[in-house]
Amino acid sequence: MARVKKGQVKHSKHKKHIKLATGMRGRISRCYTLARKLSQRAHAFAYVGRKQKKRDYRAKFIAIINTFCRENNRRYSEFICQFNKSKYFNTLDRKSLALLIQNDYNSALCVFNEVFSL
């Protein structure tokens, strides 16, 4: 059986982790074991950050809709309850509703009035 040499594969895997750690201070950017730990940690934080970003945007959209409802003398919870029963439930979500409020206030007001006219 032929001898298997792993030098090239090992070098390329090490290089990948070193490349991810470029710009870091000290040995982390040069030492493979430290760079590997750093890249694993960075990937874990990036995963969590992507989930947090979704939560933050949802909270932002809710705040925009809540402000709009308060201006029109209604509570957010009342509006969402009626909105979920309306015909707009399948077409508009919180994101598109918040964008509609920001960009086209009159159309949002029409939707608001139609939701409460049920």
What does this structure look like?
This protein has one domain. By secondary structure, the protein is mainly alpha-helical. The mean pLDDT is 93. The protein is elongated. The protein has helices spanning 7-20, 32-71, 76-85, 94-103, 105-116.
Tally of strands: 0
Structural class: mainly alpha
Q: How would you sum up the major sheet? A: none
| Basic shape | elongated
- Report mean pLDDT, rounded to a whole number: 93
Number of helices: 5
Please state the CA-atom Rg, rounded to the nearest Å.
Answer: 26 Å
Q: Residue share in helices?
A: over 70%
Estimate what percentage of residues fall within beta strands. Answer: under 5%
Q: Spell the H/E element sequence.
A: HHHHH
Would you identify the regions where 5 or more consecutive residues have pLDDT less than 50? Answer: none
Short description:
Helices cover 73% and strands 0% of the residues. The protein has 118 residues and is mainly alpha-helical.
Task: Walk me through the topology.
Blueprint: H1 7-20, H2 32-71, H3 76-85, H4 94-103, H5 105-116
Helix pairs in contact: 1-2, 2-4, 4-5
What attributes characterize this protein structure?
single chain, 118 residues, mainly alpha, 5 helices, 73% helix
